Amino acid sequence: MYCLDTDVIVDFLRGKHATAEKIKKISSALTTTCLNVCELYKGAYLSKMPENEKAIIDEFLKKINILNFDNKSCDLYGRNFALLRGRGRPTQELDLLIACMCISNNQILVTGNKKHFSNIPDLKLDEW
User: In order of start, what are the domains of the chain with their CATH numbers?
Assistant: First the structure.
């Protein structure tokens, strides 16, 4: 299963051909996280046409599963936060939360921002 990061979803919604082709190939195995959905809606409401953007997001979300927090992802977050801080290699908390939901659900995170996630143990990444 593939979990799409916000930047990949935005590329798809903006009609980026390469991203659209890749998504079509794996469309039956797609997820995103509730945090990515929050970022999408934030972008919509900050846009010049919020209702139009929101409608586009709503339609896309009908076709994708949304991962939510569970105890395992919360535990992974706490453990990885402490580990990365101890190593002096912290990452953005939102990115770490997304990563832990992916790890907990055995997902491959698809992102255009591999550097944001590369220091997180056990995270499977695919950079588009």
Answer: 2-127 (3.40.50.1010)
